[in-house]
Structures are given as C-alpha cells and as structure tokens.
TrEMBL record:
Its cofactor is Mn(2+); Mg(2+). Mg(2+) binds at D224, D248, D252. It comes from Sagittula stellata (strain ATCC 700073 / DSM 11524 / E-37). SMART domains: Iso_dh (SM01329). Keywords: Amino-acid biosynthesis, Branched-chain amino acid biosynthesis, Cytoplasm, Leucine biosynthesis, Magnesium, Manganese, Metal-binding, NAD, Oxidoreductase. This is 3-isopropylmalate dehydrogenase. The record marks Y142, K192 as: Important for catalysis. Homodimer. It catalyses: (2R,3S)-3-isopropylmalate + NAD(+) = 4-methyl-2-oxopentanoate + CO2 + NADH.
Length: 367
C-alpha cells in the first residue's frame, strides 16, 4: 500500500519557520514509527504571489484536492497590504477552504498545566480547560454576495453580506453534535438571533438538528455574551458551534486562555472522500506574525499540534496523536519556553528550532 500523502504549504512570515519544525516531527514518524508520508511542498500566500502573481496557483489547488491532507503554515504580511484584494495572500487560504469545501473548522483550546499560570486570566479560571470551538468556514459574511466597495452619491460604500442557507447550518451543526457526543455531550451554539435574521435561522436549524442527538445538552447564547462568558468562566463550555466571523474572533480570544496564540492548532474538515476520511487542511490559528518573523522566536507548537490533529482526523492514528501531544506537554512541564510563553519573566527563551528539537527528543523518550 502506498504511503498517505501530505501537501505542505509553509506560506509566509513565520510559516516556513514553524513548518521546518513540523518536518522534523514528520521525519521522526517515518524513521521511528514506520509511519512514512509522501510529502510534497508548494507555495501559498505572498510566497505564491511573488513566484506566480497569484496567492494560489491552479496546480497547487489541484494538488490540494488530491492529497490525503494539507498542512499550512501561515499567509500574509505588510509587504502585501498594498495588493489588490483579489490577489492578497489571504485569498489563497480562503480559496483552499472554499474549493475544498472545508466547512467545519475545529479549533480546540486546551490549557496545558505547565502554562496555567501564564494566562492573563487567573490560574483557576483556565487550569484544566479543554474546549472545542467549531467554526463554520466556507460561508457567512466571508463569502456572501453582494460584496465590494461601490460609489453611492458622492461617497463610497463598503459592502459585505452575511448569508447562511439551512443546509450550510445543518452540516456544521452535525459536525459539532458528533464531536460533542465523543466529548462531554454539551454544545453551546452562538449567534446574534436578537439582531440578525441569519442568527434566527441558525438557532432554528441547530435546534432541529438537536432532535437527532437527544443525549447532547444544547444551549444557545448571543455571541457577544458568549465572548464575555468565555473570559468569565470558560470551563462552563465543552463544544461551541458558531459562524465564520464570530468563530474567527472567539477562537483568537480562546487562544489567550491557553497562554499564547502560538499554542492553538486547527483542523478544517469537509465531506468524506472515497476512502471515508474527510477532506482536510490543518493549520495553526495564528498568522504570519511579521513582528517576529525571521528571528527564530516563533513558537512552533500550534503547527506541530496541527499535525497531531492530522494524525487523529486524517490518518486514523489517534494513539500517535496523543503521543505527540504528550511530548509537547512534557517539554512545557520541563520548563522550555519560546519567547511568547515567558512574558516578563527573566528566563531565557528557547528558539523555534530548539523547541522543535526538544519535542522530537521527547518523542524519542516516549518509545
Ligand atoms: P498574527 O497571528 O500573525 O500575530 C498576532 C500576534 O501574535 C503577534 O504579536 C505575533 O508575534 C504573535 N504570534 C502569532 N503566532 C505566534 C507564534 N507561533 N509564536 C509566537 N508569537 C506568535 O496576527 P496579525 O498580526 O493580526 O496578522 C499578521 C498577518 O497574518 C496578516 O497578514 C493576517 O492576515 C495574517 N493571518 C494569517 C492567518 C493564517 O494564515 N491562517 C491567520 C491570522 C492572520
Ligand atoms: C484565521 C485567519 C484567516 C481568517 C485570514 C488569514 C483569512 O484570521 O484563520 O483565523 O480570517 O479566517
Ligand atoms: Mn483569525
């Protein structure tokens, strides 16, 4: 049987730096666990624009459709801010999500014990935290039409449209209920049904889907109140399901509960392929971090944990995913910290590659 295939798209800024550490982990699995991948690498974002004048070449898009999983670093950067909207680096990522139809974006926020003191919230608020945000990823205001900047009278108007069909809400709600069934059987749906019709429909459809999951305790919350509750007492939540824009905001907020944006992985999943596995793209929640790019300061853990999610969701290797997560836990417990995990403490940070090496060493020690 051929090896599972993996397309790696490092992207821009710290993307290539954190991806280099993931490559070490992938190589380790090939060498030590007899789990080799057919890895190919390509350009996305600003790097693709520089080479091809487009943030995602058609050939790269086609490759992404064929492989078992895509792993992406990050896209974007100030150099590209002046570009026309249609060729901005971020459009490359949005095209991948849309054309692969990756509608369910899983963004877990887990607080590792060793970092509980580091969160900007009190330790007892975040210690032991383990929640999962399911963000709808292929619709809503990110993609709704009409959109654009038009002339109206003597001024310009910027337009975006929030739009959800019943079937789009239904399928992401089912993903969230399925996850809740495998976790604590608690799901909170967040929208703004008090001011948005799309929110009213969202609530109705989620309530309807709930009938197929009688064991799951469903609650609804307005997304603004949800943001407040996530900082007040995040452990009240297990799985949260929400739309594309609210999910973007709430997952960055949840990242800080865990200590750093450099810690949060994500999986973007679509419908099952012929082999029964979902179409999938894995990426850290963070961006290209232009402020620290090229300095060896980036935390590679979010990207490494994204590969752990790939092991679990695309390659049926849940035990190996757990092994990798435990290796991360161990290096943190040993006190290793990249700069983002140190704050004002006087300790010397480890570099991006030192963190990657330590995680590989912890994998070795797990054998
Ligand atoms: P960002 O996530 O890149 O950075 C926010 C802050 O978090 C910065 O101070 C950064 O240094 C820090 N940070 C992020 N990841 C880190 C890591 N792994 N280790 C240590 N510190 C880390 O968000 P931004 O500054 O708002 O956006 C920068 C660019 O990235 C923009 O062009 C944006 O569009 C893009 N972006 C891309 C993605 C993606 O590719 N998925 C996600 C978010 C933002
Ligand atoms: C994310 C990012 C993206 C988004 C951008 C880069 C398109 O912020 O993955 O969270 O807004 O979805
Ligand atoms: Mn975001």
């Amino acid at each position: 049987m051929s090896n599972p295939s993996l397309l790696i798209l490092p992207g821009d800024g710290i993307g290539p730096e954190v991806m280099a550490e993931v490559r070490k982990v992938i190589d380790w699995y090939g060498a030590k666990r007899d789990l080799a991948f057919d890895v190919s690498e390509d350009l996305v974002g600003g790097a693709a624009y520089d080479a091809h004048g487009t943030p995602l070449a058609d050939e790269t898009m086609a490759k992404a459709q064929e492989v078992d999983a895509v792993l992406l670093g990050a896209v974007g950067g100030p150099k590209y801010d002046v570009l026309d909207f249609s060729v901005k680096p971020e459009r490359g990522l949005l095209r991948l999500r849309k054309e692969m139809d990756l509608y369910a974006n899983l963004r877990p926020a887990q607080c590792f014990d060793a970092l509980a003191d580091f969160s900007s919230l009190k330790t007892d608020v975040v210690a032991g935290l383990d929640i999962m945000i399911v963000r709808e990823l292929t619709s809503g205001i990110y993609f709704g039409e009409p959109r654009g900047i038009i002339e109206e009278g003597n001024e310009r108007v910027g337009i975006n449209t929030q739009r959800y069909t019943e079937s789009e809400i239904d399928r992401v709600a089912r993903s969230a209920f399925e996850l809740a069934m495998r976790r604590d059987k608690k799901l909170c749906s967040m929208e703004k049904a008090n001011v948005m019709e799309s929110g009213v429909l969202w609530r109705e459809v989620v309530t309807e889907v709930a009938k197929d999951y009688p064991e799951v305790e469903l609650s609804h919350m307005y997304a603004d109140a949800g943001a407040m509750q996530l900082t007040r007492w995040p452990k009240q939540f297990d799985v949260i399901v929400t739309d594309n824009l609210f999910g973007d905001l709430l997952s960055d907020l949840a990242a800080m509960l865990t200590g750093s944006l450099g810690m949060l992985p994500s999986a973007s999943l679509g419908a099952p392929m012929s082999n029964g596995r979902p179409k999938a793209l894995y990426e850290p929640v963070h961006g290209s971090a232009p402020d620290i790019a090229g300095q060896g300061k980036a935390n590679p853990i979010a990207c490494i944990l994204s590969f752990a999610m790939a092991l679990r969701y695309s390659f049926d290797q849940g035990d190996e995913a757990t092994r990798l997560e435990q290796a991360v836990e161990k290096v943190l417990a040993d006190g290793l910290r990249t700069a983002d995990l140190l704050g004002e403490e006087g300790k010397a940070p480890v570099s991006t590659s030192e963190m990657g090496d330590a995680i590989v060493a912890a994998l070795d020690a797990s054998l």
